[in-house]
């Protein structure tokens, strides 16, 4: 299931920080693909987060710079889709400066989680997924019932489906935990599942203290769950957008009755 949008009633702030982070990741990746393989390896070794070095307090800057590096188009696009859909809601709940601090902190915690479990590894950690996991953790606390429009493709079955965030993100988190448990601690390379787990938990905890005053937790849904639509409905209506929910839950109590939306 690929998320393409969530409930949209307009946010109170423009997600300039979220857009800037996405832009930086794309620009850095475009620079990466101009390098020969040997140069790219050296680039990752210089700017990635290498557990063996960071555990000795060397090259600590890699905990931040590694968040803007990606190992391929799939790695980049997968991360940026999730950040685009969910990140603006967290920026709206925090404000620009706090969101930037939140993003960096969850990314650092994510990296440290993986490093604690593999302190002698010399494989550089790269990617924004640890910080994005923090965004997902914050989202599931703020908007657990918000419906996320996902693209589902199973053989010839292609549909758009409303899936509650707690199901989509809860399954994602469970997959990270099970995959982490199934991955040998001494694995030389692969996905840093425990970084995702650490980032997600950090996001849950940080949103409790970093959200703006008046922003409610556990906000209700505003559309009907599990409604489906054919792919042609992708451009219909304005109930769903690139990633926004009612402005941080302000003035949304008592919850209104779910709207089935313009598609079904």
Structural overview:
With 264 residues, this protein is of the alpha+beta class. The chain has a single domain, classed as Rhomboid-like fold (Up-down Bundle). The protein is 49% helix and 10% strand. It contains nine helices and five strands. It has a five-stranded antiparallel sheet. β2 and β3 form a beta hairpin. α7 crosses α8 and α7 crosses α9. The longest helix has 22 residues. The protein is globular and about 50 Å long. The chain starts with a strand and ends in a 23-residue tail after the last strand. The C terminus is likely disordered.
List the helices and strands and how they pair.
Layout lengths: L1 E6 L8 H17 L4 H11 L3 H4 L7 H4 L7 H22 L1 H22 L11 H14 L4 E8 L2 E8 H18 L10 H18 L17 E2 L10 E2 L23
Antiparallel strand pairs: 1-2, 1-5, 2-3, 3-4
């Amino acid at each position: 299931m690929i998320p393409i949008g969530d409930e949209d009633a307009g946010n109170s702030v423009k997600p300039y920080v979220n857009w800037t982070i996405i832009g930086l990741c794309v620009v850095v990746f475009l620079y990466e693909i101009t390098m020969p393989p040997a140069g790219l390896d050296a680039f990752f070794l210089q700017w990635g987060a290498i557990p063996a070095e960071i555990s000795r307090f060397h090259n600590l800057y890699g905990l931040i710079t590694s968040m803007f590096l990606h190992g391929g188009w799939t790695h980049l696009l997968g991360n940026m889709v999730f950040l685009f859909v969910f990140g603006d809601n967290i920026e709206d709940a925090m404000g620009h400066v706090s969101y930037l601090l939140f993003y960096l902190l969850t990314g650092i915690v994510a990296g440290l989680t993986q490093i604690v479990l593999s302190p002698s590894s010399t494989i550089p950690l790269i990617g924004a997924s640890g910080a994005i996991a923090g965004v997902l953790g914050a989202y599931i606390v703020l908007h657990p019932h918000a419906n996320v429009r996902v693209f589902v493709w199973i053989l010839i079955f292609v549909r758009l489906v409303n899936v509650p965030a707690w199901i989509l993100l809860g399954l994602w988190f469970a997959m990270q935990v099970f995959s982490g448990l199934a991955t040998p601690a001494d694995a030389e390379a692969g996905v840093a599942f425990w970084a995702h787990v650490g980032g997600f938990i950090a996001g849950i905890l940080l949103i409790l203290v970093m959200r703006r005053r008046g922003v409610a937790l556990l906000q209700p849904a505003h559309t009907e769950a599990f409604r489906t639509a054919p792919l042609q409905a992708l451009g219909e209506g304005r109930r769903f957008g690139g990633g926004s929910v009612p402005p941080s839950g302000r003035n949304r109590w008592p919850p209104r009755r779910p709207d089935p939306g313009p598609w079904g």
